[in-house]
Amino acid sequence: MATFIQLVVDGLSTGSIYAAIALALVLVHQATGLINFAQGGMAVLAAYSAWWLTARGVPLVLAILASIVLSFLLGAAVERWLMRRFERGDPDTAVVVTIGLLTLITGICGWLFTYNNQQFPSLFSLDAVSFLGVSVSQRSIGTTLVIVVVMFLLQGLFAGTKLGLALRAVAINPQSAAFSGLPVERLLMVGWGLAAVLGAIAGAMVAPQLTLTPGMLDNALVYALAAVILGGLSSPVGVVVAAWIIGVLENLAAVYIPLIGYDLKVAVPFILIFVVLVIRPQGLFGRKTVVRV
User: Fold this and answer.
1) What is the maximum span of the chain, computed from C-alpha positions, in angstroms?
2) Residue 214 DSSP one-character state
3) Which of the ends of the chain has fewer CB neighbours closer than 10 A, N or C?
4) Which neighbouring-strand residues pair with 131?
5) Cβ contact 236:25 at 8 Å
C-alpha cells in the first residue's frame, strides 16, 4: 500500500508539470480560439530570462517577477506583430505558424544560452516530508499548490470577470464582439500576454525539477496537449484534473502492468485520449458545442 500511495503522490507531482503548460494552452485558446504550440518555447525563454537575472545577483523572486512582465510584453508583441496576420485566416495556417515560432524560440534560447544543462534555483526547499511511509518533497508540494491557485484564478477569470467574458466573446466570434463595442485587437493582445505570463510561471516552477535546457518542455508539451484533450479546452479545472490523472496512471501502469513497464508508459496518455474521444469527444469536463445552421 505504501508503494501505491507513493506512486500516486509522485504522479500528482509530475502531473502538475503537465498542468502548468496545459493551463496556458487553455488560456490562449479561450482568448483567441487557437492552440499555441509555441507556449512551451515561450515558457522556456521566460525561465532563461529569470535564470540570467539570478546569475547576476538579482533575488529569485524579483527575477521571476521580471520574467513575468517580460513574458506579458512578448506575448502581446507576438500577437500584434505576427499572429494578427493569420488569426482571421485559415486556423490551420495559424497553428503551423505557432509550431514554427516554437522552433525559432528554441533555437534562439540555444544560441543565446547554449544547450548545456543549467541549474535553476527553486522557490521551495528540497527537503522531504514523510507521512505514513510516503515521502514527498516540499518543492513538489509547493509546485502543486501554485498550480491549484492558478487554476482557480483562471477559472474565476473566465467565469466571473468582465475581462474573461470579453476574451471568450472575442475568441468565439470576433466580428460580433467588434460590433458590440469590444476592443478586439487589444483583447487579443491581452489574451496572448496573459498566456505568456502563465507560461513564465510554469517555467519557473518546472525548471528546477527538469534542469534548464532549450528543449526542457518538449515532452511536457505533448503531455499538456493530452491533458487539454482529455480535460476539455473550455475547462481549466478539467485540464488540471486530466494532467493529474495522466501522471498517476502513467506511474501505476509502469509498475503494475508488466506489458507496459517504464519503456511504454508514454503510451498511457494516448490510450486515454482514444478512449475519451470515442466516449466524450468534448473532453471529460468540456462543454459540447452547439452550432445553429
Assistant:
1) 60
2) T
3) C
4) 134
5) no
Task: Give the Cα separation of 289 and 282 in Å (integer).
Answer: 8
Contact 105, 118 (CB under 8 A): no
**Helices 91-113 & 39-54 angle (0-180, nearest 10):** 20
Shortest CA distance to 201 belongs to which of 128, 127, 137, 148?
148
Q: How many residues does the chain have?
A: 293
Report the DSSP beta bridge partners of residue 212: 118
Buried (b) or exposed (e) across 257-290, using 16+ Cβ within 10 A?
eeebeeeebeebbeebbeebeeeeebbbbbeeee
The CA distances from residue 162 to 29, 157, 177, 186, 215, in Å, are 17, 8, 13, 14, 37
Written as tens digits, the pLDDT of the chain (293 aa) is: 667 877 788 788 888 888 888 888 888 887 777 888 888 889 999 999 999 999 999 999 999 999 999 999 999 999 888 888 876 667 778 888 888 999 999 999 999 998 998 989 888 877 777 776 677 778 888 888 888 888 888 888 877 788 888 888 887 777 888 888 888 888 888 888 988 898 898 888 888 887 899 988 888 888 888 888 888 877 888 888 888 888 888 888 888 877 777 777 777 777 877 787 778 776 666 666 544 44
Phi, then psi, of 220 in degrees rounded to 5: -65, -35
Whole-angstrom Cα distance, residue 40 to residue 205?
Answer: 13
CA distances for 128 relative to 83, 119, 124, 134, angstroms: 44, 19, 11, 10
Q: In whole angstroms, what is the distance from residue 25 CA to residue 233 CA?
A: 8
Cα 149 from chain centroid?
14
